[in-house]
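Below is how a single chain appears once it has passed through the pipeline. First comes the sequence as given, then the structure the pipeline wrote out for it. We keep one example in the README because the format questions we get most often are answered faster by looking than by reading.
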Amino acid sequence: MHVQYIRINKGTSITVDNLTKGTVVDLIDQNGVVLESRVCRSEETVVHFNMDRYPYPFEGNFGIRLPDGNRFQAMDSIKLYKGDLMYFEVTPDLYYKESNPETGEDFDVLLYPNTDRFLGYLTAGGSATQEVRMFAKNPMISGDFKNVTFALTSGTDKVQIAPDVEGVPGSFSYSITAFTILPGASYRFWLRMEREESQDRYASQVKFSLQMYSTYI
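Resulting structure:
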């Protein structure tokens, strides 16, 4: 028997957190059908969905209806696993482009807030810099993101950021701003990393932090 990988779940439910009293959360499948709804009660900030009755992993998303009548819903489906904790926050989705080494085809990789991600190797003897294509997407059905700022908060001695200008990097600096990202639209930009000269594998790693903040209207 060959086991490729094992996934261990924390429970049978998916939790949505950071809610306020009276907020209604809809569980929506990949076809846009609302399967069930939960209301956030006054003494809690979370709702729970038992996922035993649904396919595993579940593909879909959530709709959020606030007490003031505003509704938020992502346009894209994601894979959800039992035990997942989802934190409600209206922000653009951040991606970077990665290439399949076998086919050469590009694919999009979603970056999650407050997590680390390995973006690839800068091999000794090769180019002194590496450029990574990134984009921020407005996943909402309605509502604009205004003044979306991307700022490097660490690693600025080796990393810079630039807007995309017709498929190539513009001027590199340490922060850039997208004035408006419409529903379903994306803002593309680039990161440029400079290779460390150290021969030590750990010391030669280039580490940086990228902060994104915006206003949703």
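The chain is about 0% helix and 45% strand.

See the next section for the split statistics.
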